[in-house]
Automatic annotation (TrEMBL):
This is dTDP-glucose 4,6-dehydratase. Its cofactor is NAD(+). It is an enzyme of class 4 (lyase). InterPro entries: dTDP_Gluc_deHydtase, NAD(P)-bd_dom, NAD(P)-bd_dom_sf. GO terms for biological process: nucleotide-sugar metabolic process. It comes from the Bacteria. Pfam families: GDP_Man_Dehyd. Keywords: Lyase, NAD. It catalyses: dTDP-alpha-D-glucose = dTDP-4-dehydro-6-deoxy-alpha-D-glucose + H2O. Its EC number is 4.2.1.46. Belongs to the NAD(P)-dependent epimerase/dehydratase family. dTDP-glucose dehydratase subfamily.
Amino acid sequence: MRLLVTGGAGFIGANFVHSTVAEHPEDTVTVLDSLTYAGSAEALAPLGDAATLVVGDITDAPLVDELVAGADAVVHFAAETHVDNSLADPSAFVTSNLVGTFTVLEAVRRRGVRLHHVSTDEVYGDLPLEDPTVRFTADTPYNPSSPYAATKAGSDLLVRAWVRSYGVAATLSNCSNNFGPYQHVEKFIPRQITNLLTGRRAKLYGTGANVRDWIHVADHNTAVRAILAGGRVGQTYLIGADCQRSNLDVLRTLLGIMGRDPDDFDHVSDRAGHDLRYAIDPTALRDELGWAPVHTDFAAALAATVHWYRDNEAWWAPLKDAVEAGYAKRGQ
Ligand SMILES: NC(=O)c1ccc[n+]([C@@H]2O[C@H](COP(=O)([O-])OP(=O)(O)OC[C@H]3O[C@@H](n4cnc5c(N)ncnc54)[C@H](O)[C@@H]3O)[C@@H](O)[C@H]2O)c1
């Protein structure tokens, strides 16, 4: 397959490109990424010529059209992704997530190319903390809280409409919170790890009661690959690994892995409109496509992630001070 991977220099996209090159050498991979602050050409550098990086924007219609014309399938990861940034200034989220997805859709429509659209469980809003057995399914109504989630929800609806109205061959997936190598240091888990590695203290929003459903990025990507290969056109697949943890629990696990006292952190002001709990019911994906996560020992996968950040300081260190300055400005 000739794959066009949008956002392939970001966290999940770069991991997808790495695993595709390693496990599907028969594929050719072209990455389209505008290298925003979240994109990293260095994340693809270890692959050498095995993947081609085109630096460009998904809102650039002629460029997207040209690249889509040379592809058998598009895996669409590119997006603005950080909730805190969307609260501070939502404009780039509307442009990249909505106009960008529209541009990709028009190109795949014109060229008759298969599309997989990567989205998030945040489109569903949040769940009450009390009953962990209540989880999102593909039938859960959309109820986004943040500008990030609202623009991802809008992009999903565009994809569904292009399937229905124009017969575009697209699948969608909504995944829970990812962790693993190459995640930007602004995000919760890498922020804590790199705070501790740089002599700063770990930081927890509010009381840390908010619950996220964690999945290792490699498991997310095997699910994307399974959907690309066997998913039904027009279908939405929810991806999750049955790993609900409160932020406090995750932080204490990390502190333990890194040899710190479980209370060795600061509470910082909570995120506006902070969603209480996300949880995915992945039964449909497991039953229909036979997918299952393999990184199911959360503490072990977290320890491996800590090792990766320890070993790859040259990748993240140049980003760290600016990210912490931004958080400090917001009192976080
Ligand atoms: N991180 C998670 O936990 C998570 C969970 C579920 C779904 N998702 C979805 O997965 C996708 C990838 O997320 P991520 O965490 O890797 O994000 P990321 O922020 O690490 O990477 C996004 C990439 O997209 C690129 N990009 C942004 N705007 C662009 C534009 N206009 N044109 C071209 N490239 C552009 C950036 O340069 C960056 O390389 C997103 O669509 C996100 O909504 C993420």
